[in-house]
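Let us begin with a simple case.
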Amino acid sequence: MEQAESFNLILENVIKENWNRYSLSDYGENNFQYKDVARIIEKIHIVFKESGIKSGDKIALCGKNSSRWGISFFACLTYGAVAVPILHEFHPEQIHQIVNHSESKLLFVDDKIYKNLTEQEMPALSGIVCLKDLSILLSRDKKLSNAREHLNELFGKKFPERFSPEDVHYYKDSPEELAVINYTSGTTSNSKGVMIPYRAVWSNREFAKDVLSKHLKAGDQILAMLPMAHMYGMAFEFIFEFCQGVHVNFLTKAPTPQILLSALKDIKPGLIVAVPLIIEKIVRKAILPKVKDPKVALLLKVPVLGDMIREKVRKGLSEALGGRFYEVIIGGAALSQEVEEVLHDIGFNYTVGYGATECAPILAYRDWETYVPRSCGQPAPRMELKIDSPDPVNVPGEILARGMNVMQGYYKNPEETEKTLRDGWYHTGDLAVMDADNNIFIKGRSKNMLLGANGQNIYPEEIEDKLSTLPLVAECVVIQKGEKIYGLVYPDPDKVKELGLSADNVKDVMDENRKLLNTQIPAYEQLAGIKVMDKEFEKTPKKSIKRYLYTNEEI
């Protein structure tokens, strides 16, 4: 297998080579050049050293996306400490639990999140540091307080001359050394601490460099909208771009279509990385009403004229997203078949990848020009994937993976580690088929698979994909009660309001949806009923529904 290089050495060289180039920004404010990043990293290193932090110690980070979050993360790695990113959307009790479970010595946190935390619930912490300005929010160690109080003086002593690229020297990591413990957001269970070694961080960066570096160059810009505490956003909206000399703009507000489209128009990113929900919202609001119009649908069938209309729609969507991107990479969950069919029909430059936190995250990808619709690409470099099935082309089986991207295991959880890493393979829990060209087509999660009355395998995600295209359906989950299958639906509140519908009207529409859906699917998959939900489904930060919360929903 290919030997991993030192990731921290890559960071060191990138900072030196791009010293005066812009690196990180909080969209609309706080612009940092690479030299600014290096200076703050050095100051954090001084605080670490003076307060007794050693290589291998865990440092927790909990905050919304921001430049200072990114700088603090790199400060941990380049010192030799283990970074423990915590999703800011976790409840305070979960944050306390992760800080304690990871044995973190310090916690870097947003001041707003800190207000909801209870210091006494994290007794092993030496201190809590504010991400915004590195002020000390809690100190249980005089050395930490003293280091922060005299930080500028200590920095001046260490660098009596002007701080320059020649002063940047970072901890040299080894491939199997632990870099990150990333706690999963979990659609099927509670969080587990995924142990990610440097080889996996390096390999994911190397993958992105191989497939994207000719399209995204130093000085280009990107808009980072996914949570940095999740490996998808961290790897492909932050780490790769920083190492490429690309200017990363963190979207600090929730990516609603209006805010997102405004920022994309302004920044004109060279690459867009997104979860399906974001793209689906934009396509359903701006594109579907046009192409589904009976008159337009008829014109699309006319040779030449149809192609002209498709090109106009494609160009309009591209311009709305900034107009300069090479492709839109969609991952984190399944893309709606209806939306994908439209994107493919208009020739839009999109692709769908496949990953998992346990692989930091990439497992499969294919460039948009060769991407096969409904697939999620081919095995990524340095990764081997196989389908655990007697007939992998036709009969779904679990995706098994091995290679440089795979985690070391779950932190302090040998039972789950043994379940997931078996016989040299990572058992993903995802069910798929793989064609002769190694394109992977995911059918669903093995934990989600339902068993029909006569032993048939039922993949709820496939039913949900069809249900989501029907009138008033904003979100849906398919569950099983005994031998019967039911749909849970959260109706589109804007449409309900626009049409002036009562609760009874909505139920009537859903019953018609059920009847229509049942004409499109096999008898053993048909819905016995639809329950209308009064609020959105609870989701993970990558906007996947937490299915396990609804499996026992009363009908």
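The second case is a distinct protein. As before, the sequence precedes its structure tokens.
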Amino acid sequence: MTAVLCASSPELETDLTVSQTTRNPEPLQDPSPEITSTTSRRHEAGYILAQSALLMIPLMLFAALATDLGFWYVQARRSQGAADAAALAGAPMLPNFDDAEAEGRAAAIRNGFVDATPNDNSDFETGPLPQVEVSSPRPGSLQVRIRQAERSFLGGLVLGDVVIERFAIAEAVAPINMGNPTSAIGSGTIPEAELGVPPAQSWIALNAYCTDAERGDHFGAGYTNGTQSNIYNNCGPTATDVIPEAFPNPNFDPDAYVFVAEMQPGSAAIDLSIFEPGYRCDAATNTLTTSDSGGRIHYRVYGPSTTKNHRAFVEANAPFATGLLPADACYNNSPKGDGWFPIAQSLSLPSAEGGFYYIQLASRNPSLFDPDPADSFWLESGINQFSVMASPAGTTKACVFSAANTTCPKLYALEWLPLYRNLPANEDEFFLAEIVEEHAGATLVVRVFDASDGADSMQFENPDGNSVPFQYRWADHSVLNLNGTGYRETSMTQAFDTCMWAGAGGNPCLVTSPYSDFNDHLIEIHLEIPSDYTCSTNCWWKVRYSSTGAIGDRTNWSIGYIGDPLRLVE
């Protein structure tokens, strides 16, 4: 192009010569104005045509390149979107990498990218295109890389095809495990010599279908705002049997309570058991009584699973074990005479990477277990309190998982933890949830239903034993809609004397003694986890009750965090 711009023409030199001649005082020889003017315009037209033709080539090349760049940009966005989708689809399948890779590749195919050598992850840089590579660069994360050749259409005269490469890394944020550091939940006051670990000082508890939800079971009770009685209450199905002044519990959900037994790589087989699930058991004498103290316990066991998408797995699969535990499933009637009744035994490791089994518990499930609405299940009332344990196969001893004891399974509540605490004064601390470093900077959302009976106040305690500040507001029982003008702050000036306990600072806390504010209500609490939060072997947070008298509190707890549990990190 430079050479073209520097070239000259005879016509242009003639014109310049004529221009110089006109400045000569000597007269010209009869110039013809018409001929001179026509020749000049003809010469200029030739110059413009030549220059335009020369400039057209680079202009067309630039236009072609711009078109190709736009196309490549669109294709790069398409590749990035496919990599994002594939990483997000596969990450929930971890720690089972095979499942995660399969799901990631399937998502890439759905978005138009089929690996030319799908069984080879080593030829991403050298293999025929397109290439899709799936890997796990660190525990809990999934990386998907896509490499694709794109044509050069208009610029093909000077450029060849280009290779576009994009990648994405997704992580499934660790769920929050509710329970305690041992493999038994709700171990209450079982002697440590029998349990193998210190007991939890609280029980798992389910209301019978005919016991009002106001007694602390948001999902298991069939009615709400009814009479408060421990004797039989006729509560259905006919209109004449309905509890006076009661109406059906809109939150009744026999599928609400699910417990997860997690096995680590290398773990041995495990057993799943329930402690004293009978509803005519006298805990004081370990014998059968004639009065009802709760409802029957239905169980369903699911698995094996290798996905952290727990609820989806339970809803998509049939249980491999189901049962209705009898009224006399008491201590002395247990197979080993120790109170534990097995519901699934010798469950093997789901995969080399570990995996999960699930226990779903309900006091009543009409669709699966009660085809006859006239049977006695309609009459059961009261609260059944019991324990659940995952233990190494052949044992009825709970254990504590640690880096040195990976054969011990973890056991935790999935979404809701139903607890009952009937303890004397000052016995007011229990584990709630395991908050790991991965949750640093998150806002935890704790919901507690019916937190009032026997407790004057509650506090939240971090693993260092310090009471932490929080915000709270009330929620409506019936539809779960939050009420009030906003969140209320806890402070060091709030009912200081009420919130004290021996050896601790007492604040911030939530005073629960105003019975009407908490009875039959959900309370939503926000806890801010510091961005520099760290924990090592102990990551368990606790709830402290303050009380001057005995505590008899039946509650439901849930805990989550604000934000998407599945996220792109790169």
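The mean pLDDT is 76. The chain is about 20% helix and 30% strand.
Keep these points in mind for the review questions at the end of the chapter.
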